[in-house]
Specification:
alpha+beta, two-stranded parallel ribbon, 2 strands, elongated
Length: 64
C-alpha cells in the first residue's frame, strides 16, 4: 500500500508572517495529495505490477 508523508525541517526559523504563509502552502499541498484522484492513481499503479509499492515524501526545508 502506498504512503504519502510530509516532512519539515527548520520551520521554526520563519518569521511569523512567513510561517502563516508556510502553513497555508503546506495545507494546500496536503489537500492535493489527499484527493481521491491521487490516491486512486497510486492504487492503480501499484496494482499494475505485483509487489509494487509507491511512497511519496514531500519535504519542506527552510534554509535560513
Amino acid at each position: 500500500m502506498s504512503s504519502i508523508s510530509i516532512e519539515t525541517n527548520n520551520e521554526s526559523r520563519l518569521r511569523v508572517e512567513e510561517y502563516v504563509r508556510y502553513i497555508r502552502i503546506k495545507d494546500q499541498v496536503q489537500q492535493v495529495l489527499d484527493t481521491e484522484e491521487t490516491r486512486g492513481m497510486l492504487r492503480d499503479a501499484e496494482e499494475s505490477i505485483n509487489g509494487l509499492t509507491i511512497d511519496i515524501v514531500i519535504k519542506f526545508s527552510v534554509n535560513k
